[in-house]
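Sequence, please.
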């Protein structure tokens, strides 16, 4: 015959209050026990074991809601070993997830400040899918600079329809690899002038060469001739310019100046 005790004795034996026991009944952590003929709640070894498991899991830092999910129906027979085995599996999964996140954060910490968020954006991936990445193998700095520009364009809602134009440009360059190679070499020269003084002759020469190449690309002329007024343009230009050195900014100014002088990009 199972020995049964009343709720006061049960609370005293398990080191909790009667109020706590009643709360556990209310939220479903403990099943309602059998009652004596005169209505007293009666508890035995099954309830003692259940509350012992609850207390140990609570000491491990789990919430009552989580403990309830882990233990399941109070009417089911659950051993401490089975609970701990389930807990071990769950914790191992969480540790693996945290380890992966930690490794990602450590990589970000080791990166240069401007490169700390190095996720490839949708437009960058789309362009690479069209053109391929093999052309950039010898020009990692060029590829990184382009990735940064696409990140600025894709990360905010500028109100631009830039993606369709860059896709069209990528398709044109895929069909005209000789023009693509010229652009890559031009971009390599742009990276190379980064630390030059703004009045360096190389900057002027690069700007003129740039205009000559871009004039041959129809979609570039279309992009530059669009009559659009965007309230975010000044901020967009500021963010893009933050990726460039003063020498590279001077190159952009000269390129715009020479393109207007020669005609095809006039608005």
């Amino acid at each position: 015959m199972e020995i049964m005790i009343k709720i006061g004795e049960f609370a005293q034996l398990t080191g909790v209050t009667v109020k706590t026991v009643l709360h556990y009944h209310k939220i479903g952590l403990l099943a309602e026990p059998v009652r004596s003929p005169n209505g007293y709640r009666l508890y035995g070894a099954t309830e003692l074991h259940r509350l012992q498991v609850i207390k140990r899991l609570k000491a491990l830092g789990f919430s009552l809601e989580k403990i309830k999910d882990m233990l399941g129906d109070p009417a089911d027979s659950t051993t401490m070993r089975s609970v701990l085995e389930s807990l071990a599996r769950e914790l191992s999964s969480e540790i693996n997830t945290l380890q992966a996140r930690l490794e990602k954060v450590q990589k970000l910490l080791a990166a240069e400040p401007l490169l700390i968020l190095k996720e490839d954006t949708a437009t960058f991936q789309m362009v690479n899918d069209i053109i391929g990445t093999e052309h950039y193998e010898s020009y990692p700095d060029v590829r990184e600079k382009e990735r940064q520009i696409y990140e600025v364009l894709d990360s905010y809602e500028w109100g631009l329809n830039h993606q369709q134009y860059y896709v069209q440009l990528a398709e044109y360059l895929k069909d005209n690899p000789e023009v693509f190679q010229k652009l890559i070499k031009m971009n390599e020269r742009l990276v190379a002038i980064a630390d030059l003084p703004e009045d360096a002759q190389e900057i002027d020469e690069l700007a003129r060469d740039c205009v000559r190449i871009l004039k041959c690309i129809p979609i570039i002329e279309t992009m530059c001739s669009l009559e659009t007024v965007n309230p975010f343009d000044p901020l967009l230009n500021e963010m893009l310019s933050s990726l460039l050195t003063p020498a590279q900014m001077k190159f952009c100014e000269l390129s715009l100046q020479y393109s207007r002088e020669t005609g095809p990009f006039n608005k």
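Residues 113-262 form one domain.
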